From TrEMBL:
This is Oxidoreductase. The keyword Electron transport does not apply. PANTHER family: PHOSPHATIDYLINOSITOL-GLYCAN BIOSYNTHESIS CLASS F PROTEIN, PHOSPHATIDYLINOSITOL-GLYCAN BIOSYNTHESIS CLASS F PROTEIN-RELATED. It comes from the Archaea. GO terms for molecular function: oxidoreductase activity. It comes from Natronosalvus hydrolyticus.
Length: 302
C-alpha cells in the first residue's frame, strides 16, 4: 500500500490534539494535518518551542490553523490543567510525546520517567479528555517496534530495584500498545463508534535518538547516533505516515497496530501489522489499566 500525506481527506472541519507537536514525528504530523485543513492543538511542554515550531509550519503551509497549549506529561497537575482548559470537541487525540533510553529519573509524581511520560501521562490525558472525544473520534497512541522487547514488571513497575534504560523504554512502549487495545475493547463494550489505534514510526530521523546521547553526556555516542540517522533512518515525514494514516484514513480498524510496511517494518509506507504476543494479552492489558488508574488517581470509565 502506497499511502501518503496527500491521501488524507479534507480535514477542515476536524480538530486534533497532538502531544509533543513541536519536534520529530509530532511536528511532521502537525504540519501535514494543518496542510489538510485541520485545526491542530499543539500540546507542548515548552511554549517557546511550540511557538517556534508553529512559525515553521506557518512559513511552509501558510493557512495553518494552530493552537499552542502548554502540557507537561511528567506532571499530573499539568495534565489536569490542560484538560480542564481545553473546551470543545476533540476529533482525534494523538498521544505522541515521549522520551527514550534516558538515565533513570522520576516525574513530578514519582513515576519512573519513561513509563510516566510515555504511558501514564497519556493514560491520564486520554481519560480526562474522553468526555470531549467526538462520537466517531479516534485515539492514536504512538508506540515503537521496541515494544516487542518489553515486559510489564508489575512487581517493580517504576524500576526502583533494577533499572535498564532500554528495558524501561520497551516496557513503556509495550504499555502503549496494551493501552490502545484495551481502550478499543472498552469502546466496543460501551457500544460507541470511537476507535483506538496504536502505531509505530519505524526507524525515523528525529531528535529522539541523539537526545539519548546528550542525556548521557557522551559525544562519541552522539556522533554515532547522528551518523546512524543519516545513513539508515527514513525521514521524519515518512515516520509520521502511520500516525497520519491511523488518525485520518477511513478504512482503519479499531484496535489495529500500524507501522511502515517496508524493510524489516522499519521503513516504507503504512501498513497494518501484528504487535507482539505480550501486547495482545487481554489479561495483562486489563491489569495494566487498573494499575494505571490507581497510579494516576483517574477514573477512566466509559
Amino acid at each position: 500500500m502506497t499511502w501518503t500525506a496527500d491521501s488524507m481527506p479534507d480535514l477542515s472541519d476536524r480538530r486534533l490534539v497532538v502531544t509533543g507537536a513541536n519536534s520529530g514525528i509530532g511536528l511532521e504530523a502537525t504540519r501535514e494535518l494543518a496542510r489538510a485543513g485541520a485545526t491542530v492543538v499543539m500540546a507542548c511542554r515548552s511554549r517557546d518551542r511550540g511557538e517556534a515550531a508553529a512559525g515553521e509550519i506557518h512559513a511552509d503551509v501558510g493557512h495553518a490553523d494552530l493552537v499552542i497549549e502548554s502540557l507537561d506529561l511528567a506532571s499530573l497537575e499539568s495534565i489536569r490543567t490542560f484538560a480542564a482548559e481545553l473546551d470543545g470537541t476533540v476529533d482525534v487525540l494523538v498521544n505522541n510525546a515521549g522520551v527514550m533510553g534516558i538515565p533513570r529519573a522520576e516525574t513530578e509524581d514519582g513515576f519512573e520517567k519513561q513509563l510516566g511520560i510515555n504511558h501514564l501521562g497519556h493514560f491520564a490525558l486520554t481519560a480526562q479528555l474522553s468526555d470531549q472525544l467526538a462520537a466517531d473520534g479516534r485515539v492514536v497512541t504512538v508506540s515503537s517496534a521496541m515494544h516487542e522487547r518489553g515486559a510489564i514488571d508489575f512487581g517493580d513497575l517504576h524500576s526502583r530495584h533494577s533499572y535498564g534504560p532500554w528495558e524501561a523504554y520497551s516496557q513503556s512502549k509495550l504499555a502503549n500498545v496494551l493501552f490502545a487495545r484495551e481502550l478499543q475493547r472498552r469502546f466496543e463494550a460501551a457500544g460507541t463508534d470511537q476507535r483506538s489505534l496504536a502505531v509505530h514510526p519505524g526507524y525515523a530521523d528525529t531528535d529522539l535518538q541523539p537526545r539519548v546521547a546528550r542525556a548521557k553526556g557522551s559525544r562519541i555516542q552522539l556522533g554515532m547516533m547522528w551518523a546512524a540517522n543519516a545513513v539508515f533512518a527514513q525521514p521524519a515525514s515518512m515516520g509520521a505516515l502511520p500516525t497520519l494514516y491511523a488518525a485520518t484514513a477511513p478504512d482503519v480498524n479499531g484496535g489495529g497496530y500500524y507501522g511502515p510496511g517496508g524493510l524489516l517494518n522499519m521503513r516504507g509506507y503504512p501498513d497494518r501489522q501484528e504487535p507482539s504476543k505480550r501486547a495482545q494479552n487481554p489479561e495483562t492489558a486489563k491489569r495494566l489499566w487498573d494499575v494505571s488508574e490507581a497510579e494516576t488517581g483517574v477514573d477512566f470509565s466509559l
